[in-house]
Amino acid sequence: MLHYASASVTVDCGSPSELLEVRRAHLVEDAFERIMSASRRDLQRCRLNIVWDTEDGLDYGGPSREFFYLLSRQLFSPYRNMFEYSANDIYTVQIAPERPSDRDDILEWYRFAGRVLGLALVHQYLLDAFFTRPFYKALLRLPVSLSDLESLDNSFHQSLLWIRDNNMDNCGELGLNFTVTEERSDGTSIDIELKPNGRNITVSERNKRDYLDRIIKWRLERGVLEQTEWLVRGFNEVVDHRLVSVFDASELELVISGTVEIDVHDWRANTEYRGGYHDSHHVIMWFWVVIDRMSNEQRLRLLQFVTGTSSIPHDGFVGLRGSNGLRRFCIEKWGNADALPRSHTCFNRLELPPYPTPDVLYEKLILAVEETNTFGIE
């Protein structure tokens, strides 16, 4: 069983394994110590082997998926002050502007975040974190554009769209020049010149493209340039840039974080059955009725219960991975009606007892997913 205790991380580099205890209560700190002590060469060629203590067996994929799931959920949380929610929602995050910190090694932590992103990518584990479009472009070293601001700050984006679409020679009353007011952490503000002598250069129809290019660059780099450089450095210490240069920002987002909205039809079409269950078995028909009743959040939690991650591969359920490559979501007949469902995350398998009614199935499934602090894994 998998308990909220501690874990062991074995890194197999073709030499005797090194063992490190990673405590769940100190997961991020312990992971930082181990990952940052590894050489660039080891990061690129080693095989991760996660073993949670008190659990029997080897890491065939499930423990590793959960490791990256839990680590990313904590590391990229705005509550750690390294990242913040975008201006548009509470789902996507971006690097937080520079702020006073009592951590002298804060840039090393951004480098660590980059290494985590790289490790998850090369080992094909999805993260429980979604970032703004400019973040992915930074990882790919791609230039940013006006449209990239939409996911970062929609109101600012709309203001710049207005400037782009209107003749600035007819808008002299706005008094725009090549400066921008920047607020400081102490509550004061300062005017920043976007180019030399910018305060004396009025924005006109002739020079507004230059103005837009400069203010976009300022907005995207404001207070985050150094942190971004260190994060990208960590990412490139694990991932060869040539290997990801084939991606655009949208594709990189999908392979790092997957998708969050579950397509039930795709899920069902890519599910297999064992132990006497089949697609037209009455328990299986009830199961899909229950899935339809669930909210998307409940479905994601069920997916995490069975596979170790709540993210869906970019190519849908057909891309689910198990211990030795692609492995479909599987429902196996097991136990009796008094038992709770259990899961084997290494094999993406849900062991579902033959419950007598749809209501009992729903109650047992919800209880297993939402109220159980252990996962049955063999």
Automatic annotation (TrEMBL):
Enzyme Commission identifier(s): 2.3.2.26
Pathway(s) per entry: Protein modification; protein ubiquitination
SUPFAM superfamilies from the UniProt entry: Hect, E3 ligase catalytic domain
Protein name: HECT-type E3 ubiquitin transferase
Keyword Repeat: yes
Catalytic center residues: C346
SMART domains: HECTc (SM00119)
